[in-house]
User: Fold this.
Amino acid sequence: MVTGQIKPWYTSVRMPKGRVFQLDTDLDNLYAGLEDLGIGPRYAGEIRKGQWYVELGGPKHQYKSYQTMEVMRSPEDVVDGRVEIVGPELNEIPVETSLPFCLHVRAWGPELQEDLTEFVERGTFLALLFMEGWGIVGARDMIWLRVSKEVAPRMSFLKMAQAIRASTISLCPIVEKMEIKWVIATPEVGGRELIAAMMAEIKPKWEALDARTKGLSDEEVDTFYGCTICKMIAPNHACIITPGLVPYCGILSYFAAKAMYAVDPYGYVFEVPRGQTIDLVAGRYTGVDDTIWDRSDHKHKIFHLHSCIKYPTTN
Ligand code: SF4
Assistant:
């Protein structure tokens, strides 16, 4: 158990107390204790009706659930490896229960800037995507998670928190400290109303991040970005990310893609020269057509950024 002064997570909401755990912060032990779980791209997939043990967020709760990452300014603001679970653990929830939730992660590193928030957030996203028996749809306040019946006996929210920390630190070594809070909002904890009140405090931070991208148009930049993470589940797929186009997973803005490419130029995110404009309204550019032809394994020759009917993007 962890003791000491903790920076409040929310100032306008009376947060129920949760159970607090301390993960091993030795880098050699990032994944220790997760050996009975499969982790990796081959585990990305859907958990369908009848297969899920617990469902978190999604349409049944009017998307009043969220996942967020906060980059903290001071090392004192983050207790590395601290995990708090407000509400029940997975094994305390009856089978086929659907609940609203929040997954809130705080990170700190000496070189970690707020501009890199979305990049760091991908560590959370990939842990949820690549963990055996977990299904994820959407991000932020559109997130919808499922945990399968098959994996439930070996799984816990604490293990998932460990996987998130391990994945983020592996992906983004400039993160030195990470702290995680789960809120599984049963009626006893405060239900959807608690999550909505917490989200109201977080939303201005998301809006401030989004405002940077909204001030820029596609025509004002020479370089777009692309991402091919989802090739593992859709082999001919590639996303193009521009100031005006957020990919359908919702996890990356233009600035986050730019930061991600700067930190990891040999990773999944790559530069796309915009080239000449062929059709401004449809969003057709020579550089995008050429890149998509290469990245879609020569399946797509034309790519309209702004059409879902004629030559739509590959999602
Ligand atoms: S940007 Fe596109 S390829 Fe990358 S994770 Fe999102 S949906 Fe998948």
Observations:
- The helical segments are 117-130, 157-171, 191-214, 254-263, 286-295.
